[in-house]
Specification:
This protein is α/β, with parallel strands linked by helices. It folds into two domains: 171 residues, 2-Layer Sandwich (Cytochrome Bc1 Complex, Chain A, domain 1); 191 residues, Cytochrome Bc1 Complex, Chain A, domain 1 (2-Layer Sandwich), CATH 3.30.830.10. Helices cover 56% and strands 13% of the residues. It is built from 16 helices and eight strands. Helix 3 packs antiparallel against helix 6. The longest helix is centred in the first third of the chain and has 21 residues. The chain is globular.
């Protein structure tokens, strides 16, 4: 979409000429120990030091001056977004399954799924038809959304630069903030909504499956320790690699622990199996209880994990990571404590984690993006195990 004075193409050319790029996207995450999530619209941009004024002017242009009047351009955006989501469903169904499970387990997950999961695809499918029938209503809604999102009151600016550049650009920040509306037109609301916690199969035309199962470990009483990072990485690289990929024939199998929400997730990628993979996930607790590991293997697991935690970052990535930690209330003291817990991980931690991970077996929710035949066979073997949802 363009502005009053610039077409869509001209605006993009100006951004490319004067900056290193500008992106706008939603950010939503659980905050450990709190029900309400952290939910923001993030605008990221970068420029040379001498172009800071241009960067802030163009960000303001993107946020406040873009006009929602070009019906055909907007329909093109919608169609492209729908096509990307459909391709993601076919080629990256594990991500769709993960988002769907998260939406069943916490508020932040529900919000994210509405803007990037199957619910979002359904919204785009309906919106594509609505563009032709009610463009005036859509254009008006877009303007209302903008007015509800933008305000000086809710704005947080994070800048990354050397000290000299920060001093010189401070005036541009003030100028940018002065151009924003003083208050949002809508009141801040609390959310308390999730998808139903049933097992679900999202059926698509495919010859392979994406199989997931997840549960909230904090609900089981688990208290976060840095050892969980080491354990989840080791489970992915050994148990799931051997059973899901090597023996099961899937292209990949792994697990992830979201330490903000407490959700522990198992996922497989391009998997010929369905129920068999879920049984492997359920056996993880017993795998940990029976685990034998020499000091050399444990040391390698710890080194691999600490390398991920303290990975090298360029300045823009460092600045963004700092912003996210601020939004989620993660202090440097906590980060150091997690490092120390990672480095002191022992075999005892693996065995103790088995009880926590059994929450997935006992109370977990399963979501699979799978073929109709495999889902039908699974529901015959385990009567109505999956609720079926057709996506394509």
């Amino acid at each position: 979409m363009g502005t009053k004075d610039l077409s869509f193409v001209q605006l993009n050319q100006l951004i490319g000429r004067k900056t290193g790029g500008i992106s706008v996207y939603p950010f939503t995450s659980s905050i450990r120990g709190k029900e309400d999530p952290s939910s923001h619209i993030i605008v990221r941009g970068k420029s040379m030091a001498g172009r800071a004024d241009d960067l802030f002017n163009l960000i303001n242009c993107v946020l406040q001056e873009v006009q929602f009047t070009d019906q055909q351009r907007f329909k093109q955006f919608v169609s492209q977004s729908k096509a990307r989501m459909e391709n993601r469903l076919r080629g990256g169904g594990h991500g769709i399954a993960a988002a769907r499970m998260d939406a069943k387990l916490n508020v932040a997950g529900w919000i994210s799924e509405q803007m990037g999961g199957v619910s979002y695809l359904e919204f785009l499918q309906a919106l594509e038809e609505k563009v032709d029938n009610d463009w005036a209503g859509i254009s008006s809604s877009l303007e209302e959304i903008r007015k509800s999102l933008l305000s000086k009151e809710g704005c947080l600016v994070n800048m990354t630069a050397d000290g000299k550049t920060l001093s010189k650009t401070e005036k541009f920040v003030g100028k940018f903030l002065d151009l924003l509306p003083s208050k949002s037109l809508v009141e801040r609301a609390s959310w308390n909504v999730r998808l139903p916690s049933n097992n679900e199969a999202i059926v698509i035309p495919t010859q392979v499956n994406y199989v997931g199962k997840a549960a909230n470990l904090y609900d089981r009483g688990y208290q976060l320790s840095g050892s969980a990072y080491v354990i989840s990485k080791h489970v992915s690289n050994t148990w799931l690699w051997d059973r899901v990929r090597v023996s099961g024939g899937a292209y990949g199998g792994f697990c992830n622990f979201d330490t903000h929400s407490g959700v522990f997730t198992f996922l497989s990628y391009r998997d010929p199996n369905l129920l068999k993979t879920l049984d492997i996930y359920d056996g993880t607790g017993d795998f940990l209880r029976e685990l034998k590991m020499d000091d050399d293997t444990l040391t390698k697991a710890i080194i691999g994990t600490i390398g991920d935690v303290d990975a090298y970052q360029l300045p823009d990535a460092k600045g963004y990571s700092s912003l996210v930690r601020y939004l989620l209330g993660i202090s440097e003291e906590e980060r150091q404590r997690r490092r120390e817990e990672i480095l002191s991980t022992s075999l005892k931690d693996f065995k103790e984690f088995a009880d926590a991970i059994d929450a997935v077996k006992d109370n977990g929710v399963a979501v699979a993006v799978a073929s109709p035949d495999d889902v039908e066979a699974a529901n015959k073997e385990r009567l109505n195990f999956f609720q079926v949802k057709k996506a394509l």
